[in-house]
Structure formats: C-alpha cells, structure tokens
Amino acid sequence: MTRLIMLCVLLCLPGRAATPPFAQRVQFVIDAYAHPKTAGPLGYANIAAKLRLHEDAAQCSRRLEELLAAGPTGDMFWMFPITAIAYLDQGQLSDSARQALRSSLRTYMPYRGDTENHWLLYYTSLYLMAQMWPDQSGDQWYTGKTSAENLREAEGWINSWVRLTTTRGQGEYDSPHYMGLYFLSMSYLAEWAKDPAMGKRRDDAGLFDRRLRRRKSRWHLRGRALPSV
Description:
Order of helices and strands: HHHHHHHHHHHH
Oligomer: single chain
Signal peptide: 1-17
Keywords: Signal
Number of strands: 0
Number of domains: 1
C-alpha cells in the first residue's frame, strides 16, 4: 500500500517542476509500475503508470473494464488510484472503459473510513470526480447527491480540515506511514483542482513543509534519517 501511495503522489507531479535528479527518480518509479518485471494481469497502479507515459491504451482499457466488472473493493483506497486513472486518461481510454469507470461511481459505494487520513482521501477523490462530471443528478452517484452537492460537501470538509490542521494541529495518531496519504491528497488538489483556491490549499496551509519539518525533527531525535523519495 505504501508503494502505491507514493506512486500516486508521483503520477500527479508536473514534470516541469522537478529538478533533474528528482525527475530521474520519479521516472524510475513510474517506469517500474508501467513495465512490471513479473508476469500477471495489470492492476490499477500499472494502468495509471502506463497512462502517464501514454503507452498501451488498448491494453489499459481492456484491463480496466475487467477490474471494474469483477467489482471494486477497497473503499477510499480504491478511490485514489481510480481518480488518478480518470485524470491521466486524457482521451487514451476507450469509450467503454471510460463509461465503466464512470458507472462504478454510481454502483459501488465506498466506505468513507473512520480516521483523518481516510476522510481526506475520500473527500479529495470525491471532489475531483464531482469536478470531472459536473451537472449530473443524484441517481448518477452512489451518494444519491448531485455533482454540485458532492463537490460542496467535499470542499467544505477539506477546507475545515485545513483550518483545523493549521490552527490546532492534527487529531490522528502521528504515524510516519500516514505522511504519504496527506501528501497524496494535497498533490492531487494542487495538480487537478480547477478552482485556484482549492489548488493552493497545499501552499496556503504550508502543509508539506509543516509535516516534513515535524517528521524530520522527530526522526532525528530518534537517531534516524528521514527517508527520501
């Protein structure tokens, strides 16, 4: 799961913003998922990586339909890779694969979760999906709410979380494994949110810097080095 999280963070990073050494590490990870060494059917992460590289669109389309026909699982942990696929598609997927993806958001009801990182993943994905398919009625969504209502609910929760985090701090157990989940959500919004205010939540809140400084200080106090991407 940690590897999938980091891949999704890297997939939505704009290449123009990366320095050459970091860009090489990003490319290495994406290539590894796009061209797995072990034989076997593609997963959501492999499909997303291939779409980022604009490779094997027909294969990605067929496999995505197979995965969705088998029935989505994973709740909010299914939502964030499928959101990446939706935004990395950019006209590459077949019409039937794109329709299967859209239909899954009507027929599958992902559990919102019960912790801070779960809710942020859930609402970030819901926000971006509602943004991608605006002006749709409640019967087209698993929530039973319209696109506008889903967008408004997700935006309200995310804004509330940012305010709370930057004024009083986080309420969740401060595990280093959760850091990637917060980075993932903020990276998605920074790259794909059309509303400039939502896209700037990461920078306005200084969330990346806050969490990195906090984590770095704690790891150093324990005599350990902070892992690099």
